[in-house]
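Below is a filled-in request sheet from our internal design queue. Each sheet records the structural input a requester submitted and the sequence that came back. We keep these sheets so that new team members can see what a complete request looks like end to end.

REQUESTER: design group, bay 2
PRIORITY: normal
MODE: inverse folding
CHAIN LENGTH: 412
BACKBONE (tokenized):
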């Protein structure tokens, strides 16, 4: 495909309407690429795509999200799986060959300025300060000094027990999704001597990780997003999880939301950590590998479709109608003063959360109540309107991790 054809391919999908399989999300624009879109980063007016199949870093202008267009490309010797952009440089994890440093000071003419051979398979790269942190497969976590972009060099390493698949940085710690070995916490305060200080096992495989505040969000191959309390890095503990429909891969956190690239199920938007529930989704055409949220947009690297720009336009949630979960159809439609929940509502491990129509939490009721009598919740202080009662079963309960939502109207 020549450059003119490629540019037309970027423009045509903008007229495509959003798919029916969506919630609180809509397709804004998309840009097809020739290969397999694997990783994505967005800085300013540009999205940077690690194109695995075509062995290239692609630079796409997103100044007009409805009409993204490729403006530059830089070939690599390997198979790019991820990219992180800091300042004028893009750091590309080039699979089984190297970490590559590419100047993007001129987006139309990106050019490689340096590289560092790596022993394993470079999956994900995260850059903080003068160091790039690479999840390098069976070689564990590698710390690469990038103070001289023309001559990056390995400064330190930590051999994890599993297969280092993803890494996220927060403070002096690197959090590594180590596949079968779960989440590993590595002290990188001395980049020359990174060492493990804690870990948390997963029921499946830890594929991706993002960190926000005192929580790590792990994309687990058992079709779930796991929430890990990392307030004590030496003893991280799982505090909740949210079931997902397919195989979560890329994960990113922004504000109170977590964005998950869930392979064949596309983009999933999760509110976290409390309450933890899915609040939006968009089924992309192919396989969603990576995601980068910026403002109201999520930029998704879809292996088959290229770059998908999806707007998440609200935290509202939908009423649950599922035979897989006992529902609350027997709740009163209109309540005044007190909301009475029946005795058979949920179980003793159930969290009950009341949300307004936008998805904002207005009241919480912790688990542990008696299951032998009705539960009364005072709603007299709430403004009249439509609310959702969200029943979320904790891990280990008979409906572990599932959520049911029912609509009620609070009236005077």
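RETURNED SEQUENCE:
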């Amino acid at each position: 495909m020549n450059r003119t054809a490629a540019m037309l391919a970027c423009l045509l999908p903008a007229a495509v309407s959003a798919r029916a399989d969506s919630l609180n999300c809509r397709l804004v624009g998309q840009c097809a690429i020739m290969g397999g879109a694997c990783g994505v980063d967005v800085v300013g007016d540009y999205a940077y795509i690690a194109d695995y199949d075509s062995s290239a870093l692609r630079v796409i202008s997103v100044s007009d999200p409805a009409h993204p267009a490729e403006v530059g490309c830089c070939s690599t010797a390997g198979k790019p799986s991820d990219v992180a952009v800091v300042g004028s440089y893009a750091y590309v994890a080039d699979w089984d060959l190297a970490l590559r440093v590419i100047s993007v000071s001129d987006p139309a003419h990106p050019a490689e300025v340096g590289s560092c051979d790596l022993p394993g398979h470079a999956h994900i790269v995260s850059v903080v300060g003068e160091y790039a942190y690479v999840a390098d497969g069976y070689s564990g976590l590698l710390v690469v000094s990038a103070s001289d972009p023309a001559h990056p060099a390995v400064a330190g390493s930590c051999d994890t027990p599993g297969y280092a698949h993803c890494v996220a940085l927060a403070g002096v710690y690197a959090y590594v999704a180590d596949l079968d070995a779960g989440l590993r916490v590595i002290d990188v305060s001395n980049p020359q001597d990174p060492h493990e200080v804690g870990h948390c096992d997963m029921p499946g495989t830890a594929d991706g990780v993002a960190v926000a505040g005192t929580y790590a969000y792990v994309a687990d191959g058992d079709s779930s997003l796991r929430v890990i309390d990392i307030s004590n890095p030496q003893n991280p503990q799982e505090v909740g999880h949210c079931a997902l429909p397919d195989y979560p891969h890329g994960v990113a956190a922004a504000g109170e939301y977590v964005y998950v690239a869930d392979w064949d199920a596309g983009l999933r938007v999760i509110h976290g950590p409390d309450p933890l529930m899915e609040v939006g989704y968009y089924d992309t055409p192919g396989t969603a590998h990576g995601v980068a949220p910026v403002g109201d947009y999520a930029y998704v690297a879809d292996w088959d479709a290229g770059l998908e720009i999806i707007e998440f336009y609200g935290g509202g949630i939908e009423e649950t109608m599922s035979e897989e979960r006992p529902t609350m159809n027997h709740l009163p439609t209109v309540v005044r003063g007190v909301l009475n929940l029946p005795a058979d509502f949920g179980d003793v491990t159930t969290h009950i959360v009341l949300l307004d129509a936008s998805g904002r939490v207005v009241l919480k009721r912790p688990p542990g109540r008696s299951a032998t009598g009705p539960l009364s919740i005072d709603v007299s202080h709430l403004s009249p309107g439509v609310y959702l009662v969200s029943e979320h079963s904790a891990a280990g309960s008979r409906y572990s991790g599932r959520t049911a939502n029912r609509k009620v109207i609070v009236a005077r």
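SHEET NOTES:
- The chain is about 0% helix and 50% strand.
- Residues 15 and 220 are 35 Å apart (CA to CA).
FILED BY: M.R.
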